Amino acid sequence: MAWNDRDKIGTQPVLDKTLVAHTLVDLADGEQDFEVVDDPAAAKPIAGIADLPLCVTVNKIGTRHILDATLLEEQVASARLFVFANPDASVAHVQKSGSGGIEPSLLREMTRTGASMASLLHHRLAEMLKLEAEQADLAKKTGTQVKKWGFFA
């Protein structure tokens, strides 16, 4: 699973706070018996959400490339490269679209640029979520409200 940048930035704050109820499974007598623990303190966060790859689109226009293209820029781009990268800027996947070709040296440069931007976005989002968590903790102690980030905030 990978996310494009706006999807991840919009949903990770929600998934970061989502808790999954603790579930006990009993396999006695050859049958499966499930028990969902309804104690909120026993719930656990979804593991690994912050580590999912993020997709950045890099557009080729002429002999150059750009990030975050406008609609007009996308219409004149000869090729588009979707770079899926992890928080450490390692590339998880690359996909090309468009009818134009990409020279090998430009392909490497576009991939590095996309991976670098994806890593930056990963880290900025993590910083914002950490700041929000710290503000929420402080708000609980002082009884004040906190500005929340994300689509469902």
TrEMBL record:
Chief location: nucleus
GO cellular component annotations of the record: cytoplasmic exosome (RNase complex); nuclear exosome (RNase complex); nucleolus
Domain Exoribonuclease phosphorolytic: 51-114
Single GO biological process annotation from the record: nuclear mRNA surveillance
Coiled-coil annotated spans: none
Localisation: Nucleus, Nucleolus
This protein's UniProt keywords: Cytoplasm
Keyword Cell membrane included in the entry's annotation: no
A GO term, aspect molecular function: mRNA 3'-UTR AU-rich region binding
Family stated for the protein in its record: Belongs to the RNase PH family.
Name of the protein: Exoribonuclease phosphorolytic domain-containing protein
Organism of origin: Allomyces macrogynus (strain ATCC 38327) (Allomyces javanicus var. macrogynus)
Native organism taxonomy: Eukaryota, Fungi, Fungi incertae sedis, Blastocladiomycota, Blastocladiomycetes
